Amino acid sequence: MPDKKKIAFEIIQDFFVSASLTVAALCISKAEITWMTFLTETVFAWIVNMIIGFLVPEKRIGEKLAKKLHMNKVLSFLFTMFVIVLINVTGISIFVVLKNVGFNIRFFSVWCGLFPFLLGVGYVVALIWIPVTNFIVNSMFGKETE
To answer: Is this prediction's pTM over 0.85?
Structure first.
């Protein structure tokens, strides 16, 4: 995939996943969901997500691990997606909890309470958003993306 398509895919997919994770985190923490809270938390998660996505070769890591495990094409894709989500959700959740709770005794209990739920949600929504993101990127640039 050309670089501009990869960049567009990363930006759009990261936004969709970040917005979905924000809603999930706000719901599980029973926080009041306002447009301002949704917007500020989503933008923060999105920035963290994009930084991770552009700096960490998460897809390559997942693909190499899947290859070493001799997975077929479908399992390799699902496993690689899990690795991507694991890396991103770990980073996003750590930084969002740090931002909202600080690094104190509550950090670990809040993070441990959110992380497993967000990991599951992140994996499902990442898979759901891939075709939507591909459609948008294909509409912008043509042809296939991922």
So the answer is: yes
